[in-house]
Design the sequence.
């Protein structure tokens, strides 16, 4: 049963990762075929990002209440239906609307893929399946552009979305075969509508404001208005949560220091890495004159070390504990970003190895430390950090002149400093001793105890 849970988790996570990277190759052909503008094509990505970011936490909470298998099946089935709709869409407006719907169903699926692992494996055995999941995401992300290029060249852009349908249905079949404990229900029967709505609007507003920074800048009225609205809605959400009888983010989760530290670590490290890749793409192609294929080859060490580094990170997590492993991984990310100005393979390799280490450590920590009955909402928070981080990183890179005339050293230094903030978060993670004290199968430690971080 654990193997089925692992296959369902890996399949669901890889499906979403593959779809995201394939789209980069699809967009030029989609634009020509549908006669779309550049802004409309950009919205095929933005619409997806907005709905994913808005609904991840709510989806995880619903999974905790009604069952993660149900949410995963509903998510991937809806993802398949939306993909089929995009494959026959008559115009770009339909594509944008269906991409938003695809994002909603992707949000339903993503927290469930992590929660299934937490339910199927005891805390001390989580490290290996989390590493396998990380490897699968890396392979899918790396294969996306290549697979997309082959499909678009031979069969057209619509074939990419057709491929999603059987893959998603296969994941749904695997999920239906998984048997995990029924969710624990307590408290009021329903969540209030106010908290989820406020959080969804705040996150959507934040992602929308950040996605516009490369085009409009940090000081543009639309950017300031969007960030201000997101901050205001966030404050209202916190106020509503404090008064709610059944909050969206339970107090046990909100008070967990390992969970909060892992969220912050993933946010800033994913921001630094995404912004660095955005910057180095312009450096290699616009400044040094490399083509897309040559640029892709330069980045290969990042993918290779990310895939190879995940199992090593899992072993390091078991031996040295979350704090020391996360500190080492974050330091590698910072060194890698700082060295990208040379465009060398060593810097890309450091970045890939460091990011894999942070991913495995933070994911294992956040899932292992999830209070009993709240694995879904914790998984939703983790995925939210991973979705908001890249928007923040690209906005920071653009604000520092990554796509302009400024030398690449300046934005890369800013991004290295941004990733370096993760060192403070990593220091808040449990050490090896606290992990061993709390990682007893079936024993629910209290919030912030560091329970289950050995694996």
Sequence:
């Amino acid at each position: 049963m654990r193997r089925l849970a692992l296959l369902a988790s890996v399949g669901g996570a890889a499906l979403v990762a593959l779809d995201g990277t394939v789209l980069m190759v699809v967009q030029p052909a989609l634009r020509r075929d549908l006669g779309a503008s550049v802004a409309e094509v950009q919205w095929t990505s933005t619409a997806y990002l907005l709905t994913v970011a808005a609904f991840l936490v709510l989806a995880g909470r619903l999974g905790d209440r009604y069952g993660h298998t149900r949410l995963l099946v509903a998510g991937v089935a809806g993802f398949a239906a939306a993909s089929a709709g995009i494959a026959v869409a008559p115009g770009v407006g339909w594509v944008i609307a269906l991409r938003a719907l695809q994002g909603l169903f992707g949000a339903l699926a993503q927290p469930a893929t992590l929660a299934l692992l937490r339910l199927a494996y005891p805390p001390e055995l989580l490290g290996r399946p989390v590493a396998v999941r990380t490897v699968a995401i890396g392979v899918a992300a790396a294969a996306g552009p290549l697979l997309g290029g082959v499909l678009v060249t031979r069969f057209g852009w619509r074939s990419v979305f057709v491929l999603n349908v059987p893959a998603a249905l296969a994941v749904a079949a695997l999920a239906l075969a998984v048997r995990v404990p029924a969710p624990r229900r307590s408290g009021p029967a329903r969540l209030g509508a106010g908290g989820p709505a406020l959080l969804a609007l705040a996150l959507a507003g934040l992602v929308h404001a950040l996605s516009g920074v490369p085009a409009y800048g940090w000081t543009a009225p639309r950017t300031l208005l969007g960030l201000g609205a997101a901050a205001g809605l966030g404050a209202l959400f916190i106020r509503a949560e404090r008064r709610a009888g059944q909050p969206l983010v339970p107090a046990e989760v909100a008070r967990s220091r390992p969970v909060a530290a892992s969220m912050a670590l993933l946010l800033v490290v994913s921001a630094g890495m995404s912004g660095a890749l955005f910057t180095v793409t312009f450096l290699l192609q616009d400044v040094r004159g490399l083509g897309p294929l040559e640029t892709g080859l330069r980045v290969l060490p990042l993918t290779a070390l990310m895939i190879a580094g995940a199992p090593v990170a899992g072993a390091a997590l078991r031996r040295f504990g979350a704090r020391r492993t996360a500190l080492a991984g974050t330091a590698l990310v910072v060194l890698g970003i700082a060295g990208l100005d040379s465009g060398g393979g060593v810097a890309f390799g450091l970045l890939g190895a460091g990011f894999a280490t942070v991913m495995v450590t933070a994911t294992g920590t956040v899932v292992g430390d999830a209070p009993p009955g709240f694995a879904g909402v914790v998984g939703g928070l983790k995925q939210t950090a991973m979705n908001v981080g890249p928007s923040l990183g690209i906005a920071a890179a653009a604000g520092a002149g990554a796509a302009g005339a400024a030398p690449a050293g300046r934005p890369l230094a800013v991004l290295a400093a941004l990733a370096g903030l993760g060192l403070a978060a990593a220091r808040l993670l449990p050490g090896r001793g606290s992990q061993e004290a709390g990682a007893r199968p079936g024993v629910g430690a209290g919030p912030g105890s560091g329970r289950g971080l050995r694996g």
The domain at 1-178 is CATH 1.20.1250.20 (Growth Hormone; Chain: A;). The chain has 18 helices and no strands.
